[in-house]
Design brief:
CATH topology of the largest domain in chain A: Rossmann fold
Number of helices of chain A: 14
Distance between the termini of chain A: 94 Å
Strand content of chain A: 5-15%
Oligomer: heterodimer
Largest sheet of chain A: 5 strands, parallel
InterPro entries (chain A): Alpha-ketoacid_DH_E1_comp (IPR050771), DH_E1 (IPR001017), PdhA/BkdA (IPR017596), THDP-binding (IPR029061)
Protein name (chain A): Pyruvate dehydrogenase (Acetyl-transferring) E1 component subunit alpha
Strand order of the largest sheet of chain B: 2-1-3-4-6-5-10
Strand order of the largest sheet of chain A: 1-2-3-7-6
GO molecular function (chain A): magnesium ion binding; oxidoreductase activity, acting on the aldehyde or oxo group of donors, disulfide as acceptor
Number of strands of chain B: 12
Distance between the termini of chain B: 44 Å
Structural class of chain A: alpha/beta
Pfam family, one (chain A): E1_dh
Order of helices and strands of chain B: HEHEHEHHEHEHEEEHEEHEHEHH
Order of helices and strands of chain A: HHEHHHHHEHEEEHEHEHHHH
Number of helices of chain B: 12
Radius of gyration of chain B: 20 Å
Keywords (chain A): Oxidoreductase, Pyruvate, Thiamine pyrophosphate
Helix content of chain A: 40-55%
């Protein structure tokens, strides 16, 4: 039986036509190209800016060294924990390099390197992970929001800040970073929706590094790519090779330019890979095989760029050595900074809860002071 | 009271261009309770903004706006609708000053219409204050009078710390001799007020229960009880001294609120009063609270809400004999 043959489906019983409706936006321009955008090793590399690429290379090598040093510091007990970005340095560095001074970076807990590449003192950047204070810097001074441990909750902050800046007529773009796991959170959805409705000058950078601790992307989302999620909010989505710093820089710069010009937000998915475990507390061998890790090793962000720039004569052995020496000096300074025991003041516990301490906190502060004095005398 | 709240936002917006009102339906409609009526018209949609329907997004965006130097006033349409925003509230709003060692205070006012007694269906009548008072870094205030609605909201918007501003829904339509052309100055956040002096016992209360307590105090005169009524006005900070002074004078105390008793603010208040007034007390500190149940359907709420009779019965128990 066809629909026409069903009883009551004749023309005389048909409902009136619903009001005319059409989508508000043509979805096609918002759809990402499902192949990650690449520059290195393609014809697009012919137009590389040598000066910019030398800078990128130096920052990548420093970033790799920074990751190694921070991981070593966890083994020495100087850091409570360090979520490594080995393999993801191109994303971290590009995010920092595309921003102007007045722009804001909203990092997740994994994005210490982006904050350092933006110019934050490495020791200050690590106070959260060392445990002497939650945020070791003034966010306004550096225009870097505190590293956010709850997933995706910093994304609406980026939207609000960018929106506020635009209301005030200031030329400010906010770049917010989140991992693949974070895209499943409600705050991710709400932030993208707000940003698109408000046309806020925000760039959302998703680092899809394959795993949310141990859970692979396939168990995280059924979307074709994370960049495809953009279409549902009415913003463009871009898919980019997260290990290709030239591609990352180009795509992020374009999104920042668009935001600055009043074109609204962009969602960028950087396809990359976390070479090390989630943190030093995690055992990655339980959820992934060596073959997969080896395959990604062949697509290392530092080597990709080094090969391209060497082949094009943009850097040579001497330049590479100079960059490595510089990175080594940075690591030595970081070691020295981290080996000094941080000075903590127990009375700080009560200092920054409210603008003015409540009676309750004054009472508790007095109790602690007495305990400390008793300890001193003992 | 509704008018006083509107006036408080209007005056704050007129005086300070960084004050922004935002929430669901606050613009064109003027809020489901019309508390933001006229603000969008007077100050434009950029200063009084209809947001997408998403409480975490609203409060999260307000955090970013405050980080950039604005003073957002956020409306959470109903008490139970604020729950999706709890992660933003607890992990970021309450802690940002602390996380940044004082470098980044967040002057956000979060207006939450709360409590029952209006015949609302479920998820519209919760007394959620216990969640807020348990979160360090937040101020929690609640007006019970028209003057306080204006004065406390002005003080909240002016505060450099986040304030959860609990609006007793059933007092929105309460009338009082209030002259909006010259709003009276009221003590700011953190000060309790003795609303009625008495000698036999102290009723300690706040928000929607204040009028009930005042009525109970009048009724108690027939029983020979002269009750003092203290309106806390601010749950955090808690004005212990005003409460303690009163209880030491009267020797007896009852805490009254709509929220459930177990783990409710009354438990903390009773504990503190006991600690500081033990030798002055003629009887244990008693509580009259909502039952420890999910908020009941409208036809049953009168059995749940602390009323005059339940308060009087409890006051009678203060003639303590073991």
């Amino acid at each position: 039986m066809t629909v026409q043959e069903l009883p009551g489906a004749g023309a005389s019983h048909r409902s009136p036509q619903p009001p005319a409706w059409s989508p508000r936006t043509d979805a096609a321009p918002l759809l990402p190209d499902p192949e990650p955008y690449r520059v290195l090793g393609t014809e697009a590399a012919d137009r590389l800016d040598p000066e910019l690429m030398r800078r990128c290379y130096a920052e990548l090598v420093r970033g790799r060294r920074y990751n190694a040093q921070a991981t070593a510091l966890t083994k020495q007990g100087r850091l409570a924990v360090y979520p490594s970005t080995v393999g993801q340095e191109a994303c971290e560095i590009a995010a920092a390099l595309v921003l102007e001074d007045q722009d804001w970076l909203f990092p997740s807990y994994r994005d210490t390197l982006a904050a350092v590449a933006r110019g934050l003192d490495p020791v200050q950047a690590l106070t959260l992970l060392r445990g002497d204070w939650h945020t070791g810097y003034d966010p306004r001074e550096h225009r870097i929001a505190p590293l956010s441990t709850p997933l995706a909750t910093q994304l609406p902050h980026a939207v609000g800040l960018a929106h506020a800046a635009r209301l005030r007529g200031d030329d400010v773009v906010a770049l917010a970073m989140v991992g693949d796991g974070g895209t499943s959170e409600g705050d991710f959805h709400e932030a993208l929706n707000f940003a698109a409705v408000w046309q806020a000058p925000v760039v959302f950078l998703v680092q899809n590094n394959g795993f949310a601790i141990s859970v692979p992307l396939a168990k995280q989302t059924a979307a074709p790519t994370l960049a495809h999620k953009a279409v549902g909010y009415g913003m463009p989505g871009r898919l980019v090779d997260g290990n290709d710093i030239a591609a990352m820089h180009e795509v992020l710069s374009e999104a920042v330019r668009r935001a600055r010009a009043g074109g609204g937000p962009t969602l960028i998915e950087a396809v990359t890979y976390r070479m090390e475990a989630h943190t030093n507390a995690d055992d990655a061998t339980r959820y992934r095989g060596d073959a997969e890790v080896e395959a990604w090793k062949a697509h290392d962000p530092v080597e990709l760029l080094e090969r391209e720039l060497t082949a094009r004569g943009i850097i040579d052995e001497a330049a590479i050595q100079a960059v490595r020496d510089d990175a080594e000096a940075m690591a030595a300074a970081l070691r020295e900074g981290m080996n000094a025991d941080p000075v903590v003041d127990p009375m700080d516990l009560f200092a920054h809860v409210y603008a003015e301490q409540t009676d309750r906190l004054r009472e508790q502060a007095a109790m602690l002071r007495e305990e400390l004095e008793a300890e001193d005398q003992a | 009271m509704a008018q006083a709240l509107t006036r408080a936002m209007r005056d704050a917006m007129a005086e300070d261009p960084t004050v922004h009102v935002m929430g669901e339906d606050v613009g064109t409609l003027g809020g489901v309770f019309r508390i933001t009526d006229g603000l969008a018209k007077e100050f434009g949609e950029e200063r009084c903004t209809d947001t997408p329907l998403a409480e975490a997004g609203i409060l999260g965006a307000a955090v970013g706006m405050a980080m950039y130097g604005l003073r957002p006033v956020v409306e959470m349409q109903f008490d139970a609708f604020a729950y999706p925003a709890f992660e933003q509230l607890i992990s970021h709003v309450a802690k940002m000053r602390n996380r940044t060692r004082g470098a980044m205070p967040l002057p956000i006012t979060i207006r939450v219409p709360y409590g029952g007694g209006i015949g609302g269906v479920e998820h519209h009548c919760d007394s959620s204050e216990a969640y807020y008072v348990a979160t360090p870094g937040l101020h929690v205030v609640t007006p019970a009078t028209v003057e306080d609605a204006y004065g406390l909201l002005r003080a909240s918007i002016a505060s450099d710390d986040p304030v959860v501003f609990l609006e007793p829904k059933r007092l929105y339509w309460s009338k009082a001799d209030w002259r909006p052309e010259a709003p009276a100055a009221v003590p700011g956040i953190g000060k309790a007020l003795v609303r009625r002096t008495g000698t036999s016992a102290t009723l300690i209360t706040y928000g929607p229960s204040l009028p009930v307590c005042l009525e109970a105090a009048e009724a108690a005169r027939e029983e020979g009880w002269d009750l003092e009524v203290v309106d806390l006005r601010s749950l955090v900070p808690f004005d212990e001294d005003t409460v303690v002074e009163s209880v030491r004078r009267t020797g007896r105390a009852v805490v009254v609120h709509e929220a459930g008793g177990f783990g409710g603010p009354g438990a903390e208040i009773a504990a503190r009063v006991t600690e500081r007034c033990f030798h002055h007390l003629e009887a244990p500190v008693l509580r009259v609270t909502g039952f420890d149940i999910p908020y009941p359907p409208p036809m049953l709420e009168k059995h749940h809400l602390p009323g005059v009779d339940r308060i009087l019965d409890t006051v009678a128990r203060l003639q303590w004999e073991n």
